[in-house]
Amino acid sequence: MSPASYQTIRLSKGKHTDPEDGACVMELASMLAGEPFTDHPASVCPVIGSFLRSYNDSIDSRRRQSLYEYASKVVGSRGSGSTQQARAARLSEWAQEMQRSRRTWFLVAPLRRIGRLRRPPIDAVGSYAVHSIHKHTDRTHAAVLALVDELLALSARDERVSARVLAAYSRPLDTAV
């Protein structure tokens, strides 16, 4: 039997000791990035990583296999501190939207207040967001995948804005009198 590789591995729940035991979406990302086998790859944004790790463990096997593509998308997503803060803020906002959409809003209102009072750490906000999903359906799965795409786009916008600002500040001032 040949050793497991990123081409043959099947995504599964939990943390694994090596690829032969399986891999979660973040462990697959570490393999794709050429990093040591871990569920906390250095090249992946900790905010997105916490979200996908928690989501990977909360969904069924069929939906989990669609995360394969996202393992490659998130490689290289680690951004600046401001990008991570923006992603964490968006995840918190999304979690609140998910909680508001529940039919039993009167039961989750106290949880929302606790969430506002206790801001989860930046690397745990993803888990907080996943717990806001009442029931995993194809509709919520599509919303999660769209959210990850949105979080990844935050980095691209941040870098474009930063490049424009740096270019504006690096131009010589017109000192003609």
- Total domain units: 1
Low confidence ranges:
173-177
Q: From the structure provided, what is the oligomeric state, counting identical versus distinct chains?
A: single chain
- Give the SSE order as H and E letters: HHHHHHHH
Q: What helical percentage do the residues reach?
A: 55-70%
Shape: globular
Radius of gyration: 19 Å
Number of strands: 0
- Largest sheet, strands/sense/barrel: none
**First-last Cα distance:** 78 Å
**Helix/strand/pairing category:** mainly alpha
Please state the average pLDDT score.
82
Structure description:
By secondary structure, this protein is mostly helical. It has one domain. It is 59% helix and 0% strand. The protein contains 8 helices and no strands. It has helices at residues 25-32, 46-58, 61-65, 68-73, 81-100, 105-117, 125-131, 138-170. The longest helix has 33 residues, at 138-170.
Write the layout of secondary structure elements.
Blueprint: H1 25-32, H2 46-58, H3 61-65, H4 68-73, H5 81-100, H6 105-117, H7 125-131, H8 138-170
